[in-house]
Amino acid sequence: MAANSIFTSFLEGWLIRQESFFQELEALLSPVDGFDRNLECSKIIPRVFSHYQEFYTEKARAVGGDVFLLISPPWLSSFEKSLLWISGFRPSMIFPIIERTVAEDLSAEQKQRIEAVRSETRRKEREFTQAMARIQETVAEPPLYGLMRNYEKLVDGENSDIDDAMEELKAAMENADALRGWTAAEVVGILSPVQSVKFLAAVSRFQLQARKWGMERDRERGNITTNNN
């Protein structure tokens, strides 16, 4: 089975579990007597992080050495692809979500610490963006592009040039995934359990809605194209 088919199949099941987590997170935010909200919120947070870690682990396994699948993932809708930054969402996207969901609940100390994480995240994003641009320039250079066009005719020495570039691309994407995880973990470490659940519920809502809207638009465009033909 092709790598994209493997991950597409996994993603379908993962999104079903994502919807289930979203419902759990939302339920914890509804006032109900007779349970410790902080305790219950604390319990679900590591489960949600484990769910996301499963996504990144399976993505890396399915893609294997084909980094081009991560540049334009075939399992995403056109809208979702428009949001991509180095094979995933831009880590700093979570800060507007924080502002819309828990900003009013934050203490002065929490705001200061979150601002420090925001600054560090943006600094690392700039570094990774510049590094990615350098890698892409290398891949697009005429000599290497010519080698890629004649890949099957290459000798071992020429192969190594392409292999090195592909390894750099793969490393950049792995670093970007690590930054996404680091930013989310740092933010949740600053928030209280209830604040974290509000934040994670908002992130889940955004992801699920972006997926639904993007898939619907792609289906509509597909129907229009079919009808025109």
From TrEMBL:
<dbReference type="InterPro" id="IPR051886">
    <property type="entry name" value="Seed_Dev/Stress_Resp_Reg"/>
</dbReference>
<keyword id="KW-0175">Coiled coil</keyword>
<feature type="coiled-coil region">
    <location>
        <begin position="107"/>
        <end position="179"/>
    </location>
</feature>
<feature type="domain" description="DOG1">
    <location>
        <begin position="4"/>
        <end position="220"/>
    </location>
</feature>
<dbReference type="Pfam" id="PF14144">
    <property type="entry name" value="DOG1"/>
</dbReference>
<dbReference type="InterPro" id="IPR025422">
    <property type="entry name" value="TGA_domain"/>
</dbReference>
<protein>
    <recommendedName>
        <fullName>DOG1 domain-containing protein</fullName>
    </recommendedName>
</protein>
